[in-house]
Design a protein that fits this description.
Layout (H helix, E strand, L loop, with lengths): L1 E5 L6 H12 L2 E4 H9 L4 H11 L6 H12 L8 E4 L5 H13 L6 E6 L2 H15 L6 H25 L4 E5 L4 H20 L1
Parallel strand pairs: 1-3, 1-4, 2-3, 4-5
Helix pairs in contact: 1-8, 2-4, 4-5, 6-7
Length: about 200
C-alpha cells in the first residue's frame, strides 16, 4: 500500500503513521527521518545536505525531491510506504505525481487530519512540558501552523480534489485509539479493493 498522511503539526499524524506502518508492515517515511538517514550515506548529496542543515537553512525542493525519489525506489519501500510530511509544497506535489506515474505507482489512501488549532496549541505546549522541548513554545507553534496553512494546506486540498475517491478526512481531536481504529478500517477496505 502507498499512503499519504496530511495534517498540521501537532495533529497526531506522525504518531498514527508510525502505528499504521507497524501494523501493516510498510515503511513509515517522515521527512525528518529520510533526511537524517541520507546524512549517513557519505555521498556528495549527503555532504551538501549536511551543510544546509547545519546552517539552519531549509532543504530545497530539488534536493528533498531527489532524496525522497531515491528512498521510494529502494527495496525498503517495495512493499509500500507511508509518506508523512511530504509533499509539503505544490512543487513537491508535482514532482511526486510525475515520479509516481513514471514508476507506475498509485496511491491507495490519502489521510487528511483535521483539528482545531487551539487543540494543537494545547497538545504541543503539554508535549513541550512533558518532554522538556524548547522548540515548542506558543510563537513557534503559531509560526508552524501559519506555514502549514500557507504551504501544505493547499497541497492537501489539491490531493482531495484529484483523488477524492481515496481521500479521507480524519477528526484528529479524538483519542489515539479511536483514530487508529478508523484508519485501520479504511486500510482494510483499501486492501480488499486492491485485490479485486
Amino acid at each position: 500500500m502507498k499512503i499519504i498522511f496530511f495534517g498540521p503539526p501537532g495533529s497526531g499524524k506522525g504518531t498514527q503513521a508510525k502505528l499504521i506502518s507497524e501494523l501493516i508492515g510498510i515503511s513509515h517515511l517522515s521527512t525528518g527521518d529520510i533526511l537524517r538517514d541520507k546524512l549517513k550515506d557519505g555521498d556528495e548529496l549527503s555532504l551538501k545536505l549536511k551543510e544546509i542543515m547545519s546552517s539552519g537553512n531549509l532543504v530545497s525542493d530539488d534536493i528533498l525531491n531527489k532524496i525522497v525519489a531515491d528512498k521510494l525506489s529502494s527495496n525498503e519501500c517495495s512493499n509500500g510506504f507511508i509518506l508523512d510530511g511530504y509533499p509539503r509544497t505544490l512543487t513537491q506535489s508535482e514532482f511526486l505525481l510525475l515520479f509516481m506515474k513514471s514508476k507506475k505507482f498509485e496511491f491507495d489512501i490519502i489521510f487528511n487530519f483535521k483539528i482545531n488549532f487551539k487543540i494543537v496549541e494545547e497538545r504541543i505546549i503539554l508535549r513541550s512540558e512533558n518532554e522538556k522541548r524548547s522548540d515548542d513554545n506558543i510563537e513557534v507553534i503559531k509560526t508552524r501552523l501559519n506555514k502549514y496553512m500557507e504551504e501544505t494546506y493547499p497541497v492537501s486540498q489539491f490531493f482531495g480534489s484529484e483523488f477524492s475517491d481515496k481521500f479521507f478526512d480524519i477528526d484528529a481531536s479524538r483519542e489515539i485509539s479511536q483514530i487508529q481504529k478508523e484508519l485501520m478500517e479504511i486500510v482494510k477496505k483499501g486492501r480488499k479493493l486492491g485485490e479485486i
